Automatic annotation (TrEMBL):
Bidirectionally degrades single-stranded DNA into large acid-insoluble oligonucleotides, which are then degraded further into small acid-soluble oligonucleotides. InterPro entries: Exonuc_VII_S (IPR003761), Exonuc_VII_ssu_sf (IPR037004). The keyword Cytoplasm applies. It catalyses: Exonucleolytic cleavage in either 5'- to 3'- or 3'- to 5'-direction to yield nucleoside 5'-phosphates. This is Exodeoxyribonuclease 7 small subunit. Keywords: Cytoplasm, Exonuclease, Hydrolase, Nuclease. It comes from the Bacteria. It is found in: Cytoplasm. It is an enzyme of class 3 (hydrolase). Coiled coil: none annotated. GO terms for cellular component: cytosol; exodeoxyribonuclease VII complex. One of its GO terms (molecular function) is exodeoxyribonuclease VII activity.
């Protein structure tokens, strides 16, 4: 899908269709690798960082959506019951 070397990244961001969690993570990993290499000019590094932060936020939102859909089966006095997933807030 995404071939490196194109300067049209900003145009892609503006008209970015919804991407999957996996696609966002893969792009985020690529950005991190580029930033860790230290071989990018400062302006490019800032742009990559901003894109990475946006992708990180998107991934967080997608994970929250999934958490809301997950149900846990809890055994109670009446047998197995469905209970909405709670992210460790009750256990703390």
């Amino acid at each position: 899908m995404a071939k490196s070397g194109s300067a049209d990244n900003s145009a892609k961001e503006t008209a970015a269709p919804a991407i999957t969690f996996e696609q966002a993570m893969e792009t985020l990993e690529t950005i991190v690798a580029k930033l860790e290499s230290g071989d990018v000019p400062l302006e490019t590094a800032i742009e990559l960082f901003q894109e990475g932060m946006s992708l990180s936020k998107l991934c967080g939102q997608k994970l929250e959506q999934v958490e809301r859909r997950i149900e846990m089966l809890v055994e109670g006095d009446a047998g197995l019951q469905r209970k909405p997933f709670a992210a460790s807030k009750e256990e703390a």
